[in-house]
Amino acid sequence: MNSKKLIEEAKFARNQAYVPYSKFPVGAALLTKEGKVYHGCNIENAAYSVTNCAERTALFKAVSEGDREFVAIAVVADTDRPVSPCGSCRQVMSELCPPDMKVILTNLKGDVLETTVEKLLPGAFHSGDLHGK
Ligand SMILES: O=c1ccn([C@H]2C[C@H](O)[C@@H](CO)O2)c(=O)[nH]1
Ligand SMILES: [Zn+2]
């Protein structure tokens, strides 16, 4: 699947966002090695900090269904620049995705920034840092 199609999938996912507080819907589409797409949207909560971002929704759905091999993720929001994933999502992507995995950031105007997991969080804390290993 090409980037353009994955972006369309992310826009589709954005329609399901539950955003009564921010009114800022975000969509994500996560592509597996086998070609399956997991959709994610942001899901907010009256206790704001419990909110789940679109990127993490897609990743947690995939892992919970037994999929762990990912090749790309597209994220879309109505931003001036291509949407920029938050720190928590960058950390979760670093944990669950290959460092060189493609991350396609975009907005409704059609600006596209293609980057990687590693570029979004250089020097991420990872499993090898635990227990002095
Ligand atoms: O990359 C991003 C940035 C923000 N949000 C969500 C979290 C919250 O619901 C709203 C405003 O921060 O947007 C995402 O889902 N992904
Ligand atoms: Zn996030």
Automatic annotation (TrEMBL):
EC? 3.5.4.5
- Record Pfam families: dCMP_cyt_deam_1
Name this polypeptide is given: Cytidine deaminase
Which controlled-vocabulary keywords does the entry list?
Hydrolase, Metal-binding, Zinc
Locate the residues binding Zn(2+): 53, 86, 89
GO MF terms listed in the record are: cytidine deaminase activity; identical protein binding; zinc ion binding
What does the UniProt function comment say about this protein?
This enzyme scavenges exogenous and endogenous cytidine and 2'-deoxycytidine for UMP synthesis.
Location of the CMP/dCMP-type deaminase domain: 1-128
The active site lies at 55
Species classification: Bacteria, Bacillati, Bacillota, Bacilli, Bacillales
Q: Which family does it belong to?
A: Belongs to the cytidine and deoxycytidylate deaminase family.
Q: Which residues bind substrate?
A: 42-48
User: Which reactions are catalysed by this chain?
Assistant: cytidine + H2O + H(+) = uridine + NH4(+); 2'-deoxycytidine + H2O + H(+) = 2'-deoxyuridine + NH4(+)
GO CC annotation: what is one?
A: cytosol
An example GO BP is: nucleobase-containing small molecule metabolic process
* Cofactor list: Zn(2+)
Signal peptide (from-to): none
Q: Which SUPFAM superfamilies match?
A: Cytidine deaminase-like
